[in-house]
Automatic annotation (TrEMBL):
This protein's record includes keyword Lyase: no
Short name of any one Pfam family annotated for the protein: BatA
Domain VWFA: 91-281
InterPro entries membership: Aerotolerance_reg_N, UPF0353/GerABKA_families, VWF_A, vWFA_dom_sf
SMART domains attached to this UniProt entry: VWA (SM00327)
Protein's name in the database: VWA domain-containing protein
Species this chain originates from: Desertihabitans brevis
Entry keyword Membrane: yes
Residue ranges crossing the lipid bilayer per the database entry: 12-29, 298-318
Length: 321
């Protein structure tokens, strides 16, 4: 039995205050019963008339009864829990970092080649009815291909990505949001942005353009989740004009973006890690959290506890050999 995310009628939970009262009454009655039992000196004669009850069975029966009351009261309050629901007409915007730091070879054969391979596998794994868009992340982010259900074309678009200067993470997020706005709208609600998510892979820190936190606020306002992938290792480096430059991923910024937009932050230090991350994102990005009533589950547990309590009470009235 898992804790619910909330209750549809929380006022009914006030009934749980009766449980401590019932416990107090049980304790008082038990003590009074024990005192009366001490009046008898000839216990062997008493046992022949009244069967001796097992104390632990009696306490267990009462505990199960109380558990039944608790769970049935919670069921009466209509508990709800969050569940994953597939998004209809979902659009996934795949943002791939193509800055010069992606030349680093700490991920074999190189960051950019491993990223391309994993991104194509991710696109192919998505449901056929999903729209997919590809955005390049550099100093000048661009929509490589607008939302399309032609996943083969989207995969070919990934192959065309070329390394460029600078890293504009914030601008790439806004470009991803603009790509999402190009997805087909719901005929019943043409003003609403299509449901979907941005999947952002970057191996470095923001160097130009608006701050990522500012862009994350705008994306969050549009209610678009961003799943971030901090890509590469702390030991990654590239040689630029004869100078060796370290290029560790900016894990903190990636995490802040994901948290601000309601997405999930991942880290990938190898090609295998990246494939596993994209597999997780494929599930998360195509679903949304919804409240689902779990009254039946709590009522079921309540009935089970009540049945066990009844069996315990029956056992108290049986004289065991």
């Amino acid at each position: 039995m898992f804790p619910p995310a909330g209750f549809e009628v929380p006022s009914r939970l006030w009934l749980l205050l009766l449980i401590p009262l019932i416990v107090a009454v049980y304790v008082v009655v038990s003590r009074l019963r024990n005192r009366r039992g001490m009046r008898y000196t000839n216990t062997s004669m008493l046992e022949s008339v009244v069967p001796r009850q097992s104390q632990w069975r009696r306490h267990l029966a009462v505990a199960l009864s109380l558990l039944s009351l608790v769970t049935l009261t919670m069921a009466f309050a209509r508990p709800v829990a969050q569940a994953d629901e597939p998004l209809p007409r979902s659009t996934i915007v795949v943002v791939v970092d193509v800055s010069l730091s992606m030349r680093a070879t700490d991920v074999e054969p190189s960051r950019i080649e491993a990223a391309k391979t994993a991104a194509k596998e991710f696109i192919v794994s998505l449901p056929a009815e999903y729209n997919v868009s590809v955005v390049s992340l550099s100093g000048s982010p661009a929509i490589v291909i607008p939302p399309t259900t032609d996943h083969a074309a989207a995969s070919r678009a990934v192959d065309t990505l070329q390394l460029q200067d600078s890293t504009a993470i914030g601008e790439a997020m806004i470009t991803g949001l603009r790509a999402l706005e190009q997805a087909p709208r719901d005929p019943d609600d043409p003003d609403a942005i299509a449901p979907g998510a941005i999947v952002l892979l970057s191996d470095g820190e923001n160097t130009v353009g608006r701050p990522p936190q500012q862009a994350a606020a705008e994306v969050a306002e549009a209610q678009v989740r961003t799943f971030t992938i901090a890509y590469g290792t702390e030991n990654g480096y590239v040689d630029l004009e004869g100078v060796r430059e370290p290029v560790p991923p900016d894990v903190d910024t990636m995490r802040q973006i994901a948290e601000r937009t309601g997405g999930t932050a991942y880290e990938a230090e190898s090609a295998d890690d990246l494939s596993e991350v994209y597999a997780d994102v494929a599930v998360e990005s195509g679903t949304r959290k919804v409240d689902q009533q779990v009254t039946a589950q709590y009522a079921g547990f309540g009935l089970v506890f009540a049945l066990l309590a009844a069996l315990g009470a029956i056992s108290l009235g049986v004289r065991w050999p």
